Amino acid sequence: MAFSIRLERRLNAPMAMRIAVPVAAVAGGLLAGGVVMALGGHDPIDAYGSIWEGSLGSSDGFQSTLIKACPLVLTGLAVATALRVGLWNIGGEGQLIVGATAATGVGLYAASLPGPLLLPAMILSGCAAGAVWAAIAAVPRALIGLNEIIVTLFMNYIAILLMDHLIFGPWGDPKAFGFAYSRPLPDAAVLPLLPGTYVHVGIVIALLVAVTAWWLMERTPWGFSVRVSGGNPRTAEYLGLRISRRMIIVLALSGAIAGLAGAIELTGVTNRLQDGISVNYGYTGVLIAFLARGRLLGVVLAAFLFATLVVGSYALQTTGVAQPIATIIQALIIVFLLAGDAALAFRLRITRTRPLLEPAQAGAG
Amino acid sequence: MSFWLNSLSVGIVLGTPLAYAALGELIAERAGVMNLGVEGMMLMGAVVGFIVTLGTHNAVAGFAAAIAAGAALASVHAVMTVGLRVNQIVMGLTLTILGAGLSAYIGTGYAGRRPGAGVSAIAIPVLSQIPLLGSVLFNHDVFVYAVPFVALGIWLLLYRSRFGLWLRAAGEQPGAADASGVPVFLIRYLAVIAGGGFAGLAGAYFSVVYTQTWAEGMTSGRGWIAIALVIFGTWDPIVVLLGALLFGFVDGLNFQLQSVGVPVSTHLLAMMPYVFTLIVLVFTWTRLRHRRVGMPEALGVPYEREAR
Asked: How many CB pairs under 8 A join A and B?
């Protein structure tokens, strides 16, 4: 009697495991990140203590985490929204930067707008710029099927160079002594704070956008048609849905969300356009969307977790652990998530193998 | 005249790492596995190559370590996508971010330093004396001279060897290949890992030979240009090499224009390679999309034996 062991696809994974995998992945990522730190000669337990103290474990840290979560919620939403129509928006970084750039332009050149109008005008122009930047990738994708991953990615580099051109050139601050800063923005261009904190209202805006995006995609007929176009293009075509139009609209929306993140960072945090206005928020958003399994509300949770790691890693720097450890842990979490999903999708099946014709059966036939 | 000759010469140097990275990606893709982690693998190669060269004062050791680092990161991709059949796009993007983070982490404190050893240019006797083109073509380092032979070697491997036939079969019709006894999984593992080695080499070329410094994110999207090059090159190693040299030339033009003081912002000039890539990509794709010339049929599709 022989046995064979094979990998075989599971038809449906138990619900408990669908939840257990991301939790285990986070644990695995933290553990592996600890190994990386230990290899660098740092005590991982001390390090995680500092991360906790610097983020959720103190009032200042918690407020910093809320501030950091704002752009991450939005860039994560940008990726998850585009995924609804089956597209990969890897250009959140660039869309965020052109959003901040456009908002700066309005802040510098329309500064005479009445106070209460200036801020909305800046934020809306940030959204519009992000939408246009994403549409540059969406149109060739919709019309000739050109891979949007590569195009959105190249647009990131172009956006950074455009911003650099402006802050080193026409918008540069003559008083910044060669630092890459634009001139400061007028006082009316500063986002208000939540009462009793130093957290700007951006996080509230981000949460509202999350709920709106969820409602639009999951609770409206149009959102349903978008999901059909993304999930099952053949059905969509059969139903007469115009997929290419939906691709362009959704990717532009996704870009607008990332552009909004840029306008908020500008008006809430930096108050002038500067190099490093985005600390890889666009790329972190991709990982956040993966961890949230593309779910719009899950993005909020994942973004908070990743914000904790980023803010905590700043505190960690004082102990000598380099800040990119946050990125490493985030990426490792996703590696574990993917491995866990794969383990869920397959199961080992051990079967007895029989000869094709057993003598008894052959005889009885 | 010297402006164009200089641009050509710089273009060849800048095109060389692009060619290595793109040829590596081509090998993986011809076996059916898309690896979007090229940028991350290049950064790992750049930082490891730099640090080992600095530590050993030996660029050969640096390059060997860089190749190993690229291959090590690629083997994660191989295990995940070939072994566990994880989505290749998701894994590749994660790998790029992981490589960027790891290289920045490892490279902290090395920014601004010099590698202390390098790979010097070798002027080929007689040939380098040819007026005008001699110094452009025949006064380079060994990696530049080797790249046409590497491209040719890959072409021969793909089209003139049994292993190449197997590799292409794994990328086109893995089910049929498996049924006729081709070790599809093994070939895909080897192809992805070899591709990572090429990316690591390309990264070290930037840090050890070209800029002779390490800086966080220093490859600034060259890994993605390499991926785009495989598409323009219609998955043919010779065309990919020519494409890489063309892109190197555009990249080099930017530095040359800056150095002769063209009255355009350096930042706008630096956009050229990206804008050029996008424009060429749109044109190539418009022309090719219906025929899918050269694109491996099973590219991006995990192979499962049960699905046969």
From this structure: 132
Any domain includes B158: yes
- Which domain range does residue B89 map to? 2-297
Distance, in angstroms, between B9 CA and closest chain A CA? 25
User: Cβ–Cβ of B265/A169 closer than 8 Å?
Assistant: yes
As a whole number of angstroms, the distance between CA B59 and CA B71 comes to: 18
Sole residue written with tokens 């007895």: A352
Condensed to tens digits (0 to 9), the pLDDT of residues B2-36 reads 888 888 999 999 999 999 999 999 999 999 999 99
Q: Determine the residue among A101, A136, A158, A168 to mutate to test chain B binding: the one whose Cβ has the most chain B Cβ atoms within 10 Å.
A: A158
Contact A161 B270 (CB under 8 A): yes
Q: Quick check: A324 and B102 CB within 8 A?
A: yes
Q: Which helix (H) or strand (E) holds B264?
A: none
What single letter denotes the amino acid at residue B158? L
What is the reported pLDDT for A356?
53
Give residue-wise pLDDT tens across range A310-347. 999 998 888 888 889 999 999 999 999 999 988 877 76
What mean pLDDT is predicted for residues A150-158? 95
Could you tell me which chain A residue has the CA closest to the CA of B285? Answer: A146
Query: Per the CB < 8 Å rule, is B221 touching A156?
Result: yes
**Within a domain: B69:** yes
Neighbour-count burial of B121, counting CB atoms closer than 10 A to its CB (0-12 exposed, 13-18 middle, 19+ buried): middle
Domains: count for chain B: 1
Element (H, E) at B268: helix B266-269
Residue B15 lies in a domain: yes
Q: Which residue of A has its CA nearest to B287?
A: A144
- Using alpha carbons only, give the angle B237, B241, B243 rounded to the nearest 5 degrees: 115
Of the candidates A144, A290, A345, which has its C-beta nearest B285's C-beta? Answer: A144
Question: Does A332 sit within 8 Å of B98, measured CB to CB?
Answer: yes
Higher pLDDT pick, B178 / A112 = B178
Is residue B24 included in any domain, yes or no?
yes
Higher pLDDT, A176 or A70: A70
Model confidence pLDDT, tens digit, residues B85-96:
999 999 999 999
Give the domains, in start order, of chain A with CATH numbers: 1-42+321-351 (no CATH), 65-319 (1.10.3470)
Q: Give A181's DSSP letter.
A: B
Residues 139-168 on A with a CB inside 8 Å of B are 140, 144-147, 149-151, 153-154, 156-158, 161-162, 164-165, 168
**Where residue B278 sits, what CATH number does that domain have?**
1.10.3470
Residue given tokens 């500092």 in the structure block: A50
Closest partner residue to A328 among B101, B224, B270, by Cβ?
Answer: B101
In a mutagenesis test of the A interface, which of B258, B271, B299, B304 is the best target, namely the one with the most A β-carbons within 10 Å? B271
Q: B69 with B61: CB under 8 angstroms?
A: no
Residues in chain B: 308
DSSP-derived letter for residue A126 is H
Residues B156-185 as b/e (b if ≥16 CB within 10 A, e otherwise) read: ebbeeeeebebbbbbbbbbeebbeeebebb
CA-to-CA distance for B170 and B149, rounded, in angstroms? 25
**B123 beta partners:** B139
**Tokens (6 digits) for A12:** 């449906």
pLDDT of residue B46: 98
Residue predicted with more confidence, B220 or A364: B220
Segment A26-51 shows an average pLDDT of 93
Residues sharing a CB contact under 8 Å with residue A162, sequence separation 6 or more, in sequence order: A97, A98, A101, B267, B271
